[in-house]
Design goal:
By secondary structure, the chain is of the alpha+beta class. It has 3 domains: 96 residues, Thrombin, subunit H (Beta Barrel); 155 residues, no CATH class; 135 residues, no CATH class. 37% of the residues lie in helices and 27% in strands. It is built from 13 helices and 16 strands. Helix 6 packs parallel to helix 11. The radius of gyration is 28 Å and the shape is globular.
Length: 466
């Protein structure tokens, strides 16, 4: 979760089971969503509580509090990170918090359910590309007029029963505006469910939406500004009317990159405008991809988020990701399954009894095709983008040799494998191949994939012959 500045607020905190025992503390939320609570004293300073502390019982589960400027807060899934017991002095302890809910105080065992989750993602304004701000200049009269009409919301129906809205918030100039007139607009995603859902359900969907946006932008982008509402949590606004209480939520969301990405519309793989007529199908295809190729997607995004400190690690993740992708999307085998089972049975039957278990283990995956054949099959739909037959074979050989060397450290391959800049270029090409296939998974036709390639300078550079 992206925070532009550290969140640090003082307040009083207590356990829902003991609201009379309130202790001072400071709640700190850092960029990335890590949350800590530093308290003075202990939530339970009874003899039993101190004995539990001495014996290492660190779980606190849920803490509620009241902090400056924000009022009520609920801290969930908590435990002592370090705990100091000072007899006669001041003791400070640090509590690790997994999730913080600002604006509400939940009871000890109260189940948190929500109907709506609104969040923004880095790059969403540039990707959606819709603005209600219109500026008209009249240079001859040295004047200008600025008008604002909110863009229409976009509503997509998800196969999981939720609705996904692309919505907009805005601020207009205050009064009087004698020196400055400022209009701002911000784009958000909003998930809605008629049936109240757990936060985990919403977070899972929000994560997939974020990775879709990151794939389209070709950057690691982070969630920011998350708020939720529940039909069960309302506030009185007078005249016998109630309104939903907006609950700000903080948690260590994924994906996350330390530095905010530089977003450039011209460097995106594709923009919302290119898929707007088919957006619902494409978004649902992306969700379906997680059911089919989840491990491959995780490996791909790990390389984009900088999870691998060294280039060898990034290469291995890409190689494993491509292999896993092919395993999940292809039924390719060396021979017909029935024929292989018969061959296996015949071989085991003729094998000495004391070696049959060993042979059975060796044959278990004997019908799997080689990495070389998998990479060749993956390349086939886009072979015209990857050079001549000789160049493609060289690419396949480079991937297979490097994977085998790093996996088995075969010394005979040490002088043949790519290193340094050549390895970096190889990783770029593997990443591009991954992207071309993910476009297909989204539902892009061959001609549409080709159009994306022709209009993407970044994608062309990754496959550039060096």
């Amino acid at each position: 979760m992206r925070l532009d500045e550290e969140f640090k607020k003082s307040g009083y905190f207590w356990l829902p089971s003991n609201p009379e025992k309130r202790i001072p503390g400071i709640l700190v939320i850092k960029d990335g969503g890590s949350i800590e609570l530093e308290v003075v004293g202990l939530f339970d300073d009874s003899i039993d509580g101190i004995n539990r502390a001495i014996n290492g019982s660190d779980a606190l589960d849920r803490i509620v509090g009241h902090i400056e400027k924000h009022g009520l807060v609920t801290l969930d899934d908590c435990f002592y990170k370090n705990r100091n017991i000072s007899f006669g002095g001041i003791s400070k302890s640090t509590v690790h918090v997994n999730r913080a809910f600002l604006g509400v105080a939940y009871e000890e065992k109260e189940i948190m359910l929500f109907n709506h989750l609104k969040f923004s993602v880095e790059g969403i304004d540039e990707w959606v590309g819709r603005s209600g701000i219109k500026v008209e200049h009249q240079f001859d009269k040295k004047s200008a007029s600025i008008t604002y009409n909110p863009p229409e919301e976009i509503i997509l129906n998800l196969n999981n029963g939720m609705k996904l809205q692309i919505t907009f918030t805005w601020t207009l100039p205050g009064f009087p505006s004698q020196k400055e007139a400022k209009i701002t607009q911000k784009t958000y995603f909003k998930l809605s469910s008629d049936q109240a859902c757990s936060l985990n359900d919403f977070i899972s969907v929000a994560y997939k939406i974020t990775t879709l946006l990151g794939f389209a932008i070709d950057k690691t982008v982070c969630i920011e500004k998350v708020t939720a509402t529940s039909e069960a949590v309302r506030q009185d606004i007078g005249n016998e009317k109630t309104a939903l209480v907006p609950i700000s939520i903080y948690y260590p969301s994924l994906p996350f990159a330390k530095n905010r990405p530089k977003i450039d519309q011209h460097r995106m793989l594709f923009r919302f405008g290119q898929i707007q007529n088919d957006a619902e199908r494409i978004v649902n295809n992306w969700f379906g991809a997680y059911d089919q190729i989840d491990p491959a997607l995780n490996l791909y995004f790990s390389t984009k988020a900088g999870a691998h400190k060294y280039l060898d690690g990034k290469f291995l993740a890409l190689a494993q990701g491509l292999e896993t992708y092919h395993r999940r999307t292809s039924k390719m085998k060396l021979m017909d399954e029935d024929a292989f089972e018969k061959l296996t049975s015949d071989l085991i039957e003729q094998c000495p009894e004391e070696d049959r278990e060993w042979l059975s283990g060796r044959l278990r995956h004997g019908n799997e095709v080689s990495l070389s054949r998998r990479i060749k099959s993956i390349i086939e739909p886009f072979k015209e983008l990857l050079g001549t037959s000789k160049e493609r074979n060289k690419l396949i050989r480079a991937i297979v040799d490097k994977r085998n060397y790093l996996t088995h450290y075969d010394q005979s391959l040490e002088t043949a494998v790519v290193k340094g800049e050549e390895l970096w270029v190889l990783c770029l090409k593997m990443e591009a191949i991954f992207q071309l296939h993910l476009l297909q998974i989204l539902g892009f036709t061959q001609s549409e994939v080709k159009s994306v390639f022709e209009n993407s300078h970044e994608l062309q550079q990754k496959l550039k012959k060096i």
